[in-house]
């Protein structure tokens, strides 16, 4: 987010701008999410991301790359709205630098952690659990004909715990993800925005800072994502499946490097999504703030 406006967005502005950013970026980058999930589920025997992509399209057509996209995109739009709402609300209550008037790095970090925890518990864990099962099923037994089938299967066979399997690594991932992403984004934005603005290219600052933040976030949080995917797969529906058990199993099977399995497609997705989401968020927010009609209708929200 730019510092063009010093006032905190209203809750409705944060939710609408955040949801728009999350929905658009997830639709744009979902094929890389599909490849990442398949690679993690296959474990040590998985081929390269490119070979996996080619094989999937050859065997099932281009449509397979959007398997599970419905649950993921709805989840991503929802979590993005909640993420920005929580971040903006919490950060507005935290200290600012007395010289610049901008939130301090520690304020960005604390607000980021709060945003990550909020989105994990409310949206991300159940949404990604559904997506993981659909992606795994499409490449295997074909138990589900639709997202509705997956929901019914999970409800009848696993109950509420099925939707929240992997909640610990997911929450750890989302909290660290938001902490790293927001902190690195604002640090990078504050660094590059002044010279870009002087060069007449200030509008690029959000995209560049967002892409950079996405790259940093991938390497910092990938182990949590890998453990989460393993815990949410259909094949781990019974028996031991605790976070520590899954973590040690991955290391035993693939070594420590196995915790970064699927990094390449996730790196592509988060760098692109970072550029898209922060840019869209800021543009939608600016539009709402500049719209007299919108402001008058939402002034009390």
TrEMBL record:
Annotated Solcar repeat ranges: 9-93, 106-191, 201-287
Entry keyword annotation includes Mitochondrion: yes
Superkingdom assignment: Eukaryota
Membrane topology: Multi-pass membrane protein
Localization: Mitochondrion membrane
Family per similarity comment: Belongs to the mitochondrial carrier (TC 2.A.29) family.
Protein's recorded name: Mitochondrial carrier
Organism: Fusarium floridanum
């Amino acid at each position: 987010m730019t510092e063009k406006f010093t006032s905190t967005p209203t809750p409705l502005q944060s939710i609408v701008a955040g949801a728009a950013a999350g929905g658009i970026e997830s639709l744009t980058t979902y094929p890389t999410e599909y490849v990442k999930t398949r690679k993690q589920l296959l474990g040590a025997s998985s081929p390269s991301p490119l070979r996996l992509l080619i094989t999937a399209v050859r065997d099932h057509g281009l449509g397979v790359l959007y398997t599970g996209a419905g649950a993921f995109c709805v989840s991503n739009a929802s979590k993005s709205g909640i993420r920005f709402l929580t971040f903006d609300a919490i950060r507005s209550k935290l200290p600012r630098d007395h010289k610049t008037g901008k939130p301090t790095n520690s304020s960005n970090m604390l607000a980021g952690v709060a945003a990550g925890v909020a989105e994990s518990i409310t949206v991300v864990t159940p949404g990604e659990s559904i997506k993981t099962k659909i992606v795994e099923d499409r490449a295997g037994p074909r138990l589900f004909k639709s997202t509705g089938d997956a929901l019914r299967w999970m409800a009848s066979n696993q109950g509420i715990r099925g939707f929240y399997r992997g909640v610990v690594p997911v929450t750890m991932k989302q909290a660290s993800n938001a902490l790293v992403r927001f902190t690195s984004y604002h640090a990078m934005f504050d660094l590059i925005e002044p010279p870009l603005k002087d060069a007449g290219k200030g509008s690029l600052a959000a995209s560049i800072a967002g892409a950079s933040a996405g790259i940093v976030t991938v390497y910092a949080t990938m182990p949590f994502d890998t453990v989460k995917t393993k815990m949410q797969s259909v094949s781990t529906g019974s028996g031991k499946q605790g976070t520590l058990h899954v973590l040690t199993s991955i290391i035993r099977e693939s070594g420590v490097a196995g915790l970064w399995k699927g990094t390449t497609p996730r790196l592509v997705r988060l760098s692109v999504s970072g550029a898209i989401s922060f840019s869209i968020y800021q543009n939608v927010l600016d539009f709402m703030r500049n719209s007299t009609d919108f402001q008058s209708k939402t002034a009390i929200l």
